[in-house]
Specification:
This protein is an alpha/beta fold and 278 residues long. The protein has helices spanning 37-50, 84-103, 119-125, 151-158, 160-168, 176-182, 194-205, 210-226, 229-232, 236-243, 247-259, 261-267; strands at residues 13-18, 21-26, 57-62, 108-112, 115-117, 129-133, 137-139, 173-174, 187-189. The longest helix is centred in the middle third of the chain and has 20 residues, at 84-103. The chain is globular, with a radius of gyration of 18 Å.
């Protein structure tokens, strides 16, 4: 799917400007800002356009009650056959959309409120700086239909033990304060202060000239590459593609066909890891 490079034509994302920020706003609140194919294409187009247009700082937020509930599972029928090659290519393509944030010349701030789940947490985790609300719900996929696509991004931030704790339990989550304690986010703030805090930080960042910002960011990205951050994300899509063909995942998808997605999600809800960390 190819979309226009003109942000004014986007239907699932809004690009808005207020000095010194250009906002990328995930705008499917009626679908919990689930990451559809079109939204992902528009997200990439927005990043490309903002490289040479807009304000010196980019910030990403979700419209409505949360940041994003993750990938739009409703776009694929539960009983649809899985083409492993196509599936792997799709996941690599989507991962590269997020890695593009590391390589973007402008600093990118993630502003997370409400729910930030699965693919939504993958996107937010790969922003340069992440500010969350104290009551945010941040976690991985609610039902066991994948294996290792999103959690390695967490491991680069919170370490392997905490990444395993969050991913081994279906529907596991942490709140904003815990996200900061773990190193997933920079700051946790009251919900009514989120946007003001992002604006304040952006104003201070913008005091640095754009060319110097780009060099500072590139130097840190180079250090991350030397530590293996990018390489650590290159193989995990293969594990997920394998998982999608297993009998276990097929059984979960069969339940979704019989019972409905919401009902299956409800059956996997568990108390959040936050309670174990205090």
């Amino acid at each position: 799917m190819k979309v226009s490079s003109d942000p004014s034509t986007f239907t699932t994302i809004r690009v808005e400007h207020e000095k010194p920020i250009s906002w990328i706003i995930l705008d499917r609140p009626h679908k919990a800002n689930a990451l559809s194919r079109e939204m992902l294409e528009e997200f990439s187009a927005a990043l490309d356009w903002l490289e040479h247009n807009g304000e010196p700082v980019i910030a990403i937020r979700g419209e409505g009650k949360g940041f994003s509930a993750g990938y739009d599972l409703g776009q694929v029928a539960p009983d649809a056959p899985v083409d492993v090659v196509d599936d792997l290519a799709r996941m690599r393509r989507n991962l590269n959309r997020y890695i593009a944030m590391w390589d973007h010349p402008k600093p990118i701030i993630g502003a997370v409120h409400g729910y930030c789940i699965a693919g939504g947490s993958q996107l937010a985790a790969m922003t340069d700086i992440t500010i969350v609300t104290e009551d945010a719900k941040i976690g991985l996929v609610t039902i066991p239909v994948g294996a290792g696509y999103v959690s390695p991004v967490w491991a680069t931030l919170v370490g392997p033990k905490r990444a395993k704790e969050i991913t081994f339990v279906p529907g596991n989550s942490i709140d904003g304060r815990t996200a900061v304690e773990w190193g997933w986010a920079n700051h946790a703030v009251p919900a009514d202060q989120l946007l003001d805090r992002v604006r304040s930080l952006a104003e201070r960042i913008a005091l640095t000239p754009p060319d110097i910002l780009a060099l500072k960011k590139a130097s840190i990205t180079t250090s991350m590459d030397a530590m293996g951050a990018r390489q650590s994300l290159s193989t995990p899509p293969e594990y997920d593609a394998i998982a999608h063909t297993t009998d276990s995942v097929k059984a979960v998808k069969a339940r979704i066909s019989r019972e409905g997605l919401k009902e299956v999600i409800a059956s996997y809800r568990t108390p959040p890891t936050t309670d174990l960390s205090v």
